[in-house]
Structure formats: structure tokens, C-alpha cells
């Protein structure tokens, strides 16, 4: 596949349009369920005090997780911050906390439920906080894809590798079919492992659901060519691919992407280099291949934070990731003389992450403090068992 073809695919619309802030229902999506409670008004001047009081009342019974992309007004109440996998593990390491309030999106809360004990209850402050990327691969679509691979006579050679940013159903599919989960930090290790599961020259990987992380890892980190990768489009018959194309491919990339990182373009990189001479361009591997190829550094959210911590005073950085995080890092490192700007000129928040705001957090904490368990995220036992298998394979990666 050429870069131009990749770009062409990316401009097609997201299959599920984003819903307005938690006020509609979409049973086919992991997001879009109405918030059942009476939210406090966003203009209530006592919101911070109310959140503090409710959290204090709950004490050790509650543990609040804050994903890096959350708003500052929410992050201030997080007991710990991090990426989705780190947060799920942090929750599992706090068994005394009966309530895990996950300030993030739905698939993250599911992963926390899978990794925590049965006694711990995971709560998502706004049930409408989903992830558009996770929604791009449904269980039915992936089962259909597997049928296509079976008909092409290659299913036995295919190892699924699913990004953490996927629903519990997709993680369970991955576990059931001998595959592993990966994060943006260990995607190369996961792919190395997958290709070792059979004859490396015949083995193929079905990478779900982020085509960009799959392609960037295969091409940039593992030396494959763009032609080794094909994109399976679940909205086309047979994924839009012939059996010959599937048999020739090493990487079968699901046609999914992050609506936030997918916005950065080669023009954003060229433009920032012109505006800020000497700038270091540092992007997340969920960005398009041409953006990653043009960047100076590429890495996960944790990598980005560590790179900026280690950066010398006076250095200049343009960061291609979610805006809440970039702003926070810019403020944090400004006193050290590090200039940090957002890679693109247009605002680029994760709209679903932003659904978790102070009114939702206050409503959640006050409800829990009053003994009302709200917005619990619970994965059924069978799904949990297979999803856990896939997660455990990731934990055992060398
Ligand atoms: S930043 Fe992208 S991948 Fe992460 S939750 Fe938002 S839409 Fe999903």
C-alpha cells in the first residue's frame, strides 16, 4: 500500500458519529448512554469543595484514576495518573479500594474491571465517554473478518494482536484465538512474539483496531515494507481485499484510527519546523505513517513525558498528542526553560475523554458517598476470562 492510499482511507467518515454530551442512547456503541443522575450545574462555585468533601468521606474506599488526557479540573482529584494499562494495574494494586473511579473512557474501565478483584467495583463518571477508535471494531465485524481469513485458507497462520484501546469483546476474541494485547510502548515486542508463534515466514498478524500503530510498528520498528501491510475495511465485502492480497500480506491492519492523533498531518510538521527553527517534533505512534516518518521522535504517552523530563533547558518541542496533556506539560516544563507547543494549529482534544468533567465527577463521588453505586462497568465472566488470557500474554512478553 502506498502512503497516498493510506491517506485516502483516513478521510472516510468514522462509522459512528459522536453523540452530544451523554444525552442520547446508542446501544450499538460502547458510548452514548444517558447519564442517569441529576448532574450539578457546571457553574456551581462549590464543585471543587463538594468533590473534595465526598472523596474525603469515602476515604480509602475510593481510588480515583486519571488518564493523562483528562481535563485539569478532573486530574486534580486523581490519586494516580497514567496511561490506560498503568492505571488498570494501579487499581489492581489497591485491593482495599472498593470503588475504582476511572476518569478515562469506557474500554479503560473495562480493562480495570478485568484486572481488579471481584470485590472491586469500577465506575465511569459518564457512561457516554467511549472511544471512537474502540468503536471501529465490533465483535460481529471481527468474527466476520475471521470467516474471511478462514475462507482465504490463512486463519491458522494468523495471530491477532489487539491494541489496549479496544473493547473487552475484542480483547476476548484475541485471547480465544491465541493472540495478545499490546500498548503503544510494547507493540514491537508483541509483534515479535506473534511472529514467533509459528513459522515466521508464514505467520501473519491481524492488528486491531488501530491501523496506524500497526503500520508504524511494522515498518518503522521491524523493517517491513508498506507493501507487507494491507488494510481490512469492515465496511466492504471481504474487507475490500482479495484472497491473494490476504495471502501475500504479513500485516492485516484493521481499518481503525484515533480521531485525535489521526488529525496531525505532514503539513503540521512542515509548518511547525518553519515557525520554530530548531524545534524537535515528537509524536505518538497513533499518528499517520507520513507524520511519524517526518518526526524526530516517536513514542507512547509515557515516552513523551520522559523525553520532556530529560530534555535540556532551552530546547523546543512540538508534540503530536492530545491537547490537555500537551498544555499540562507545557505549563509544567516552562519554568525549566523548555518551550513546548502543540503540533497542530487547530485545537485537538479527545472529545470523549472530555466528557468526564467536574459535574460528573462530583455526582459520582457524592452518589458513592451516599451508598449509591452508579455507572458501574462490569465485564461478563466469559468475556473477562478470554480477555484476561490475552492481557496475561502481554504481561509475559519478554
Ligand atoms: S485519544 Fe483517541 S484512542 Fe484515546 S480515547 Fe480518544 S479517541 Fe480513543
Reconstruct the topology from this structure.
Blueprint: H1 3-10, H2 47-58, E1 62-67, H3 72-75, E2 80-82, H4 84-92, E3 99-103, H5 106-115, E4 121-123, H6 139-151, E5 158-163, H7 168-176, E6 180-182, H8 187-195, E7 204-208, H9 211-221, E8 229-232, H10 243-248, E9 251-254, H11 266-275, E10 280-283, H12 289-294, E11 297-298, H13 301-310, E12 316-320, H14 323-333, E13 339-342, H15 358-369, E14 376-377, H16 381-395
Parallel strand pairs: 1-2, 1-3, 3-4, 5-6, 5-7, 7-9, 8-9, 10-11, 10-12, 12-13
Antiparallel strand pairs: 4-14
Helix pairs in contact: 2-15, 4-5, 7-16
Bound molecules: iron/sulfur cluster.
Task: Assign a percent range to the helix content.
Answer: 25-40%
Tally of domains: 3
Q: How many angstroms separate the termini?
A: 31 Å
Characterize the overall form.
Answer: globular
Walkthrough of the structure:
By secondary structure, the chain is of the alpha/beta class. The chain folds into three domains: 113 residues, Rossmann fold; 125 residues, NadA-like (Rossmann fold), CATH 3.40.50; 82 residues, Rossmann fold (3-Layer(aba) Sandwich). The protein is built from 16 helices and 14 strands. The strands form three sheets. Strands 2-1-3-4-14 form a five-stranded mixed sheet, sandwiched between helices. Strands 6-5-7-9-8 form a five-stranded parallel sheet, with helices on both faces. A four-stranded parallel sheet has the order 11-10-12-13, sandwiched between helices. The longest helix has 15 residues. The chain is globular, with a radius of gyration of 21 Å. The two termini are 31 Å apart. Bound molecules: iron/sulfur cluster. Iron/sulfur cluster binds next to loops.
Amino acid at each position: 500500500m502506498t502512503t497516498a492510499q493510506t491517506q485516502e482511507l483516513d478521510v472516510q467518515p468514522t462509522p459512528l458519529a459522536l453523540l452530544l454530551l451523554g444525552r442520547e442512547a446508542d446501544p450499538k456503541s460502547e458510548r452514548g448512554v444517558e447519564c442517569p443522575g441529576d448532574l450539578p450545574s457546571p457553574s456551581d462555585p462549590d464543585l471543587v469543595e463538594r468533590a473534595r468533601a465526598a472523596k474525603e468521606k469515602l476515604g480509602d474506599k475510593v481510588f480515583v484514576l486519571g488518564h493523562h488526557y483528562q481535563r485539569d479540573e478532573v486530574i486534580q482529584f486523581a490519586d494516580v495518573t497514567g496511561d490506560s494499562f498503568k492505571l488498570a494495574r494501579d487499581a489492581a494494586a489497591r485491593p482495599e479500594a472498593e470503588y475504582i473511579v476511572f476518569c478515562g473512557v469506557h474500554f479503560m474501565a473495562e480493562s480495570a474491571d478485568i484486572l481488579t478483584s471481584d470485590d472491586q467495583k469500577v465506575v465511569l463518571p459518564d457512561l457516554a465517554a467511549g472511544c471512537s477508535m474502540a468503536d471501529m471494531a465490533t465483535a460481529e465485524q471481527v468474527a466476520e473478518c475471521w470467516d474471511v481469513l478462514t475462507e482465504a485458507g490463512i486463519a491458522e497462520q494468523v495471530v491477532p494482536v489487539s491494541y489496549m484501546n479496544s473493547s473487552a469483546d475484542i480483547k476476548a476474541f484475541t485471547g480465544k484465538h491465541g493472540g495478545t494485547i499490546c500498548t503503544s510502548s510494547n507493540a514491537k515486542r508483541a509483534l515479535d512474539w506473534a511472529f514467533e508463534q509459528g513459522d515466521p515466514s508464514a505467520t501473519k498478524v491481524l492488528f486491531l483496531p488501530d491501523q496506524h500503530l500497526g503500520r508504524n510498528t511494522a515498518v518503522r520498528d521491524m523493517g517491513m515494507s508498506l507493501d507487507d501491510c494491507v488494510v481490512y475495511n469492515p465496511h466492504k465485502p471481504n474487507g475490500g481485499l482479495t484472497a491473494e492480497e490476504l495471502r501475500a500480506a504479513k500485516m492485516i491492519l484493521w481499518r481503525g484510527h484515533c480521531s485525535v492523533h489521526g488529525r496531525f498531518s505532514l503539513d503540521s510538521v512542515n509548518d511547525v519546523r518553519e515557525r520554530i527553527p530548531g524545534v524537535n517534533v515528537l509524536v505518538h505512534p497513533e499518528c499517520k505513517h507520513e507524520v511519524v516518518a517526518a518526526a524526530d521522535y516517536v513514542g507512547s504517552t509515557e515516552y513523551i513525558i520522559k523525553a520532556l523530563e530529560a530534555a535540556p533547558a532551552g530546547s523546543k518541542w512540538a508534540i503530536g498528542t492530545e491537547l490537555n496533556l500537551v498544555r499540562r506539560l507545557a505549563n509544567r516544563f516552562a519554568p525549566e526553560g523548555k518551550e513546548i507547543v502543540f503540533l497542530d494549529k487547530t485545537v485537538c482534544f479527545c472529545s470523549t475523554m472530555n466528557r468526564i468533567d467536574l459535574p460528573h465527577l462530583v455526582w459520582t463521588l457524592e452518589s458513592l458517598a451516599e451508598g449509591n453505586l452508579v455507572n458501574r462497568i462490569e465485564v461478563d465472566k466469559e468475556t473477562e476470562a478470554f480477555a484476561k488470557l490475552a492481557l496475561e500474554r502481554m504481561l509475559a512478553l519478554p
